[in-house]
Amino acid sequence: MKQTLILLCILSANISNAQETIPFKLGDDNRIYMKGIVNQSDTLDLVFDLGANITVINKTRMKKNNVNIKFDTLVSNSGTNGSSEEEKSFNNQVVLGKQKYKNIDILGISYPEDDLMDGIIGWNFFKDKIVQINYESKELLIYDKLPELSKGYNKCKLKLVDDDGLPYVEVIVYKGKKKVKIWAMLDTGYNSELLVYFKEVKKNDLLNKFQVIGEATSYGTDGSISKQDKILLPKFSISGFEIYNMPSYLNKTEFETDIPAILGGNLLKRFHIVLDFEKKLIYLKPNININSRF
C-alpha cells in the first residue's frame, strides 16, 4: 500500500544491541562526516559514502593531517564521472569510534584544495554488518544482526552488482500517469537528490517531459564534461513512500557508465535507513526531515 508523506511520524529503532555507535556530522553538502584515524594520523574527517566500495585517503590533505601511508601499487579507479589511475596501499589501520580495524586497503586520490574531506569510508567497510544511518541523532549504528525495528519501516530489495559492487534500490519516476522504474545507486557522497544518467534518460524518453528549473555541469576525472537539466519532478516513489515536487537532474550528454541513476544525500537524509548487505535488504522510514524544503 502506498504511503503519502504528509504528516510526520517519528519512530526510532531499538539501538540497545548496537555493536558500535559512531557519531557523525551532516555537512552543508549533505555528506556524512565521521571522525577517524588512519595509521596514527591526526583526527580526520572521513565521509561515509555508500557510492564507494573502498576506503580512500585525500592525498591533498595527507601532509597537513600527518597521514603516513606507503602506497604499494597502481590501480584503475572507475567512478560515475570517469576513470583514472590511482595509488593503492595495503594493510593499514583505521580507527572509527572505539573500534580499530586492521588490514584495510586504502586508495589515494588527490581531491581539489577546497574539498575539506580527508578521506572516504566505503560501504563495504561494514559489508558483514547491519548498518543503520540515523540522520536525527546523527549516528551510524553498527550491528551484528538485524535489530528489532519499530513500526513504520518499509522493506525493499537492495541490489549489489557483485560482491564488491555498489548498492541499488528500485525507484519510480512518474512521467504523467506512466510509472518509470529505475534502479538507482545509493550515494551518500552525492549532495543532491536524484540524478538519472543519459542511457536511462534516453531509454525512458525523459528529456523535455518535465518543468526545467535550471542546468548543471559535471566535470569527470578523465576530463569529460556532461550537462544536466535540473527539473522539478512532480511525483517520485521509493520503497512505497511518495515524494512530490522534488528537484532532480537528467543527464543530456552521452558518455559511458553502467550506472542508471544515483540517489544523493539531500533525499536520503529524509529517511531512517537500515542496510542489511548480507541479505541484500534495505529498510526505510521517513524521519523528521521528510517535509523539509529541498
From TrEMBL:
Coiled-coil ranges per UniProt: none
Q: Which InterPro entries match?
A: Peptidase_aspartic_dom_sf (IPR021109)
Q: Has the keyword Membrane been applied to this entry?
A: no
What are the boundaries of the signal sequence?
Answer: 1-18
- SUPFAM superfamilies according to UniProt: Acid proteases (SSF50630)
Q: Which UniProt keywords apply?
A: Signal
Name of this chain's protein: Aspartyl protease
User: What organism is this sequence from?
Assistant: Bizionia argentinensis JUB59
